Each structure stands twice: as C-alpha cells, then as structure tokens.
Amino acid sequence: MDLATYRERIDAIDHDILRLFKERMQTAAEIGRYKAEHNLPILNHAREREILQRVGNDAGEDLSSHARILFGMLFDLSRSYQQRLLDGDSQLAHAISDALEKTPKIFPRNGSVACQGIEGAYSQLACDKIFPQGDITYVRTFDGVFQAVEQGLCQYGILPIENSSYGTVNAVYDLMRNHHFYIVRSVKLQVNHVLLGKHGSSLKGITEVFSHDQAIGQCSAFFKQNKQIKVTLCENTAVAAQMVADSERRDIAAISSRPCAELYGLEVLSDNIQNSDHNYTRFIVISKQMAIYPGADRISIMVTVPHKPGALYRLMAKFSVLGVNLLKLESRPIAGRDFEFMFYFDFEGSVYDQDIVRLLADMAAGPDLFVFLGSYSE
Ligand SMILES: C=C(O[C@@H]1C=C(C(=O)O)C=C[C@H]1O)C(=O)O
C-alpha cells in the first residue's frame, strides 16, 4: 500500500474515534448530571482503576501502557467536561471578569509600596522603576512585605523572585502559600553589585564581607579569588552597607547597590563584582485585590497534584493541548509532608482567551489545591 492509502485509512479511523469520543463525552455528561442530582462526587477512583485494568489487559502487551495513557487522558477530559457543564461559569471566571472590568486602564505611577530592607535596597530600585512616584514603607523581612499588603497597610508590595545567574529566591516562593495576594506586575532589573568599605580602606585589608545570600551567590567568583574573606549573611544588601557604615571596623565591607555608597558614606572598593555582566533579578508587584491591567500576557498559578505517577504529566498535558507556552515551573517541598510538592507555574496567556479561562476554572474546580496568583505583564 502507498502512503496516501494508509493516510486514508487513518482518516477513516479518526472519524470513528471522534464519533465515539463525542458519544463518550455525552454519556459522561449524563453521568455528571446524575451525580449532581444524587450529590455524588465527579471523581470515582475505583471505577477509573477498573477501566484502566481492563483496557490495559485488552490492549495486549505491546500497547498496554499506550492504552492506559490514552484512557487516563480521556478520564481527565470527561471529568473536566462534567465539571464545566455543572458549574456553568466558575467563581474564578467571575472574579477574573470582575477584575477586568474594575481595573483602571493605566498602571498607576504612584501608591504606597512595601519594600524589604532600607534605602538603597534592590527592591527600592525596582520600585523606582515601576512606581516613579511611589511612597515606600520599608519592612525588615519578605514576610513583612506580604503582611503589609494583606493587612492593607500598603497598596502594593515588591518582592524579588528569581535571578538570572543564582536562580530562584526560595524564601519568597515558600511564603506565597501562607498569604493571600495577587501579582499585578513584574519587572526585570539589571543588578550590578559593588563592594563597599569605609573611606580609605582597600580590598587588600578586607577580612569579612556582609550581604544577602542572593548577592553572595551572584558574586561567588569574587570569593573564589579572595579566599581570605569571611562571608557573613544578613537580611538585605542595603542593611549590610549600613552595618559597615555604623561599625568601627575598617576591615569589613558590604556587597550592595552603587547608590548605597553615597547613601551610607562608603567607598566603592571594587566595581561590578557579580559573576556575569548580564545579571538580572525579576521582581513581582503584589496587591490585595485582583487587578488585571491592559497588556497582561502572563499568568501565575500555584497548585498541588496528587502524589501519584503521571499526576504532573497530566496537568502539563492540559497546557500542551491548548498550545500554552510555559515560562517557569518551580517546585517547593511542602513543610511537614513526605516529599510532597507545591508547584508554581508561570505561563504565557491572556485572560481574554476563553480557553485559558476555562483551563483555569477547570483546575480550580479539581480536588487539589489551586490558587490563581494573577495575570500581569512584565
Ligand atoms: C464518567 C464518570 O466520571 C468520572 C470519569 C470516568 C470516565 O471518564 O470513564 C470514570 C470515573 C469518574 O472518575 C463515571 O463516574 O463513570
């Protein structure tokens, strides 16, 4: 047989599969209605296991695992179809359209903003970029930024989430699940670190350097070359500069931003000491209310998936069928659980796209934890 004839055969088979698929989905919808009337949950593990067992056996050794994957996908589709028919428009879909209606058409230039650290901190530099007329309140910790927003003390909060060379700011991701907030914007800031010491001191005489863990990590090559220097972590790069300024010691220095030299009366002992010239940190802007500004083309969510083989794969398949491009996938262990993880996804997409809203509503309706973290632009 030639290729064209094989393809004709495949087309005919697909025609039958599609007819049967539609029939299967309609039947699942009927079952969904029955379940709603009788107060039964949509998911029935035992039934799915039974079908997988049968299908796996009937398919024969060669195709057993392929058939199980196919039917696993069919279950997902049939459950989400049942859910959608029963829920109509989900709560999340309503909240999103509400936010779209109420959000001003232009991102504000001012507002009260919580930043971690003190003046000269990189969060402040990020804030200046986003809110040129922002009114900054400094808090000591990242947790304090979340709290200031959650309690309504500040309209916005700024938090670093990842660096192009040193990676994720884990502490911020771990705090996300303890707080209620929405991401309304993100920004990428080029970060050039400088070594700051007392006037008249020099790199040769420095025995100890203070800074934040991220800055130390981004300057690891500098420490390899200067092995005599002891590293001491502190909560913020600007706080490190202030500590050096307040200390009597002349053998200590801080890794900070350049503006901290002038702010704290220090001297630049070494310039651009980060490993890479292309060193960027991404910051998010959080707010208490959901707000989706024009141009929002990025969506962030936080989910757990069941601790079972294929669970993450099935979640990813939902993105894949819509042709959604994933921008970031981060996993963090859930404290107190046995290697269970919280997954954070950033993906490209607009909430004006009904397929995307349906996907979000579908995940929100599932049995696992799902949090919509916001839709925004960078
Ligand atoms: C259709 C049903 O709902 C769900 C979907 C199933 C399926 O697609 O075969 C099986 C079990 C349930 O988790 C059902 O309960 O039969």
Which residues sit in consecutive blocks of at least 5 with pLDDT less than 50?
none
Computed Rg: 26 Å
Tell me the fraction of residues in β-strands, as a range: 15-25%
H/E topology pattern: HHHHEHEHEEHEEEHHEHEHEEEHEEHE
The helix fraction, in percent, is 40-55%
The count of helical stretches stands at: 13
Structural class: alpha/beta
Q: What's the total count of β strands?
A: 15
Distance between the termini: 54 Å
Shape: elongated
InterPro entries: ACT-like_dom_sf (IPR045865), ACT_dom (IPR002912), Chor_mutase/pphenate_deHydtase (IPR008242), Chorismate_II_sf (IPR036263), CM_dom_sf (IPR036979), CM_II_prokaryot (IPR002701), Preph_deHydtase (IPR001086), Preph_deHydtase_CS (IPR018528)
Domain Chorismate mutase: 1-86
Pathway: Metabolic intermediate biosynthesis; prephenate biosynthesis; prephenate from chorismate: step 1/1; Amino-acid biosynthesis; L-phenylalanine biosynthesis; phenylpyruvate from prephenate: step 1/1
Organism: Oligosphaera ethanolica
Give a nutshell description of this structure.
By secondary structure, this protein is an alpha/beta fold. It has helices spanning 3-37, 45-58, 64-87, 91-102, 122-130, 142-150, 170-176, 213-218, 220-225, 237-246, 259-263, 311-321, 354-365, and strands at residues 110-116, 133-139, 156-163, 167-168, 182-190, 194-197, 208-211, 230-233, 252-256, 267-270, 280-287, 298-304, 326-333, 341-348, 370-376.
